[in-house]
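call fold target=diguanylate cyclase
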Amino acid sequence: MRLLRPLAGTPNRLALTLAAFYVLCGYGSVLLTRVAAGSLPLLEFAAGAGLACLLLGGRRGYASVWLGSLVVQLPQLAMMLDWPLALLLAAALSLLNVAEAHLARLGWRSGETRFHHPLLREPRELFYFWLYVAMLPPLLTQPLQVLLLNLAGIGSERSFMETGWYLLMLVLGHASGLFLLGPCYAGWRDRGRWPRLVSLPWWWIFAFVAVLASAFLVYRHTLMLVLPLLLVLAIQHGLPGTSLAMLLLALTSVVGTAHGHGFFVGATPTLSYLNLQVFLFSAGFMLHYLALAQALLLRHRMRLEAEVIARTEALAASNAKLAELATIDELTGARNRREWLRRATEQLLQAQRYPAPLSVLVLDLDHFKHINDQHGHHAGDLALRAACDACTATLRASDSFGRWGGEEFVVLLPATSEDESRRVAEKLREAIAAIRIALDNGQIVRITVSIGMASLRDDDHSLELLIRRADDALYRAKRGGRDCVVCDNGDG
């Protein structure tokens, strides 16, 4: 019902709108029958309209179909029968039309339950739609309509063979109405999923009309040229475009055949329209199948593209995580030895190419083994993390800080003079000396650090030499009492 809210805002207005739609389709079918072959039924669009009314209007749709059918049936019957009998027969035939629409709706809803989504979204559903929605309801209801008409004296003069042909055309006409309008409803229901018909190129419309005119006015075999145009339409505009093109093709073919033109003209009118019904069914089935298959392929491609994007993003995240694990020390979060050496080497080369001061600090936590032995390895891990956090908070973003191994850390200070580097080292020592680690047993652990410092010289051709001098200064700091900063030139 939400589909018709712009047209009918209230349920009663919706019911009247659906009834008007049914009447329009019913009189269109009557007019087409009179133009084509008198009383011979051809395309009963009212059958497809009845299905759409029930799908859109729910319970009110039944009243819309019955009322609309009564409006269509009664004037015709009143010209052949007395008014009371015509009214009674029209009411009975309207109930049959409601029953046919109900059976088609049951088939439609059963298909949605069977396929677990709205019907006519995949090509495998097309045969089910044709059999249980388009063909079976007319087969069950139209013999009763012929019986009621014969009991009322309408058509009783026909022979048994003529009655059989009439019944066959009646069933095919109702099936065609359902087969042609059912996809129109599905295309309208899913109109947001299909390309807009306003983008249909003008040359296609001109070519379609030209081919139909040529087939019915000049040379009938040119009708075959309409198939490539329909194929393009099925691929480019899917089910809505195909359904509308099939309606236009059906109307044009019926009118052309009624005037004795075209590919379907046979020895008798019945044979002519039987040929037409076979063509419309085969062409419609093929084109609807192609349109649904094309849509299915597009959905699969979009799903695959989304899956590829998702997996690519997951892979990129995994690679980033692996890169982080390869460069970050897991315990402290500082750069590991390999990553620190890579970055420090780059900064050393930069300082040598464009002469600039540079210093390296090597830090070693004092009595770390004693912390592990007395308080446990968990306390040692807490001490390492606390020292790392203190250094990170003290250093600049341009400084390179990393874990060298065990309880040792290294710092590279680019563009920093020896005096400035010594002040930075003192700040680090003071920050670590201020750390207090509260353990679960209530004890407080204090830590200190010894720092060796080396500044870049002209004869330092590699990072290894600079680190070695800073390491030697560290050992002097250890021997000198710990908790101090020692430079490689001997200054403390």
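return ok
The mean pLDDT is 88. The first helix runs from residue 11 to 37.
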